[in-house]
Design goal:
2 copies of one chain form a homodimer. Chain A is α+β, with helices and mostly antiparallel strands. Chain A contains 3 helices and 4 strands; from the N terminus they run βαββααβ. In chain A, strands 2-3-1-4 form a 4-stranded antiparallel β-sheet. In chain A, β2 and β3 form a beta hairpin. The longest helix of chain A has 14 residues. At the A-B interface, β1, β2, β3 and β4 of A face β1, β2, β3 and β4 of B.
């Protein structure tokens, strides 16, 4: 569930959102987009949680991979649905991961 | 709930975690740490969600602010409790936010 990413540097797209009251079709599309993202060149991983506020972070090799994914045809349609139906507000932040470290209990 | 951050560049600390089965004292400390973080120099904002996987993102002016917060005395104690009691696994990623954009429905 925690994404297994390579050694930095790599990129993160932090997508923070609040859903609208009309989630019809949302879950199906979200799952479909997640599967589609996996197949994109440069995709490194994905993490997501929601309890009121939703935070999804996708990880990418470089900015070119992020741009290609943003322009992918089915994803463009999903983004449009996101704006017209599913989200009341969202924020996208594109960030270069410079350092990371993990903890695992015994 | 979505952090109101200034224009990039700024920094994000992405903390992804899975909790252990012993959450005693966790909620109190999490709230206390969130309030304490607000008061640190260079703090810009905080976002958090959990449904199994937990994702917390804190935003900072620069790497020096992140280092100071990591070394803050009460926060060091909380980090130790995190490792010994509260988390079974976590991953910390420190990233430079280079671009951001927002959507608000009408």
């Amino acid at each position: 569930m925690i994404a297994q990413t390579p050694a930095p540097p790599y990129y993160a797209v932090i997508f923070t959102s609040i859903r609208s009251d009309q989630p019809e079709g949302y879950d199906d599309t979200a799952t479909r987009m997640q599967l589609l993202a996996c197949e994109q060149p440069g995709y490194l991983g994905f993490e997501s949680a929601r309890d009121g506020l939703g935070i999804s972070v996708s990880y990418w090799r470089d900015l070119a991979s992020i741009r290609s994914w943003k322009q992918q045809a089915d994803h463009l349609i999903a983004q449009e649905k996101g704006r017209t139906e599913w989200y009341s507000v969202y924020q996208v932040r594109i960030a270069r991961v410079e350092r990371d470290y993990a903890f695992h209990s015994e």
